[in-house]
Amino acid sequence: MESRLSGIAERILQSYEEVGGLNNTDGHNLPSKRALDTLCARLLQFLFPGFHDDRPIHKDELADTTRQRLGELASAFEDQTAKSLRLKNAACTDEEVREVLLAFLGELPAIRELIQTDIEAAYEGDPAAASNEEIILSYPCIEAIAIQRCAHLLYNSGVPLLPRMMTEWAHARTGIDIHPGARIGPHFFIDHGTGVVIGETCVIGRKVKLYHGVTLGARSFAKDEKGQLVKGGKRHPEVGDHVTIYPNSTILGGETLIGAGSTIGANVFLMHSIPPGSLVVYEEKQLRIVEKFRQPPI
Length: 298
Known about the structure:
Blueprint: H1 2-18, H2 33-47, H3 59-88, H4 94-106, H5 108-125, H6 132-138, H7 140-156, H8 162-174, E1 177-178, E2 183-184, E3 189-191, E4 197-198, E5 203-204, E6 209-211, E7 215-217, E8 238-239, E9 244-245, E10 250-252, E11 257-258, E12 263-264, E13 269-270, E14 279-280
Parallel strand pairs: 1-4, 2-5, 3-6, 4-7, 5-8, 6-9, 7-10, 8-11, 9-12, 10-13, 12-14
Helix pairs in contact: 2-3, 3-4, 5-7, 7-8
């Protein structure tokens, strides 16, 4: 057994040498995926006190609990933020890291205000929603949007990698894939949510409602003279205020604008702009219905 394990270890070590792209042994001190799990869970506890806990938090405890959790959150975020910022600038100082972190933490009250509008949008937009408590505890869109709104702050501060790791954590839990770069207005609701994809340069206005399977993606990817993808640039659509997009619709392109007040029906594929107040649907294909036990021969 030991001799065979030794041989396997040697082959694995040889693989480490030959397949180096999968290793980070002598490279940067990267953010930890395991630490990120705990960090995002703590962030949700902080944003929704009493909802991600084993017991309710009494008002008499709230001040002490909040201060304690803020300290824990700051400590966890400081370590991961420092690792992320030093990927871009190895000389980044502890003070610079703390300034980014404090700016982020200082915006969390405003993020909670935005999330409250998202909860209101869910309650108003879903007849099955019985209460705000049900929405917070059981609607996947709330977790996905809450984490994305926080990650967006770090993205705007120029923190690499960490914001994307945060939204991918939410993606794995909810099936909703929102890039941290996406700009999303208040009162945002994703009904059901599974399979929704929102790209990095997407801009979404106020009171927008999406259903499952919606993609707001890129139309094409420009390449340089060496055939490599050109990074950056506006690649994803802009969705105006008060727009509803029904299940499994795909809207592509950085120049595509969905005008305010429009409705996009199910299974629509769009790569061009539409004016405000538009209704976009496919005409119903011919539907055949026969009695189940009197079907004609096929």
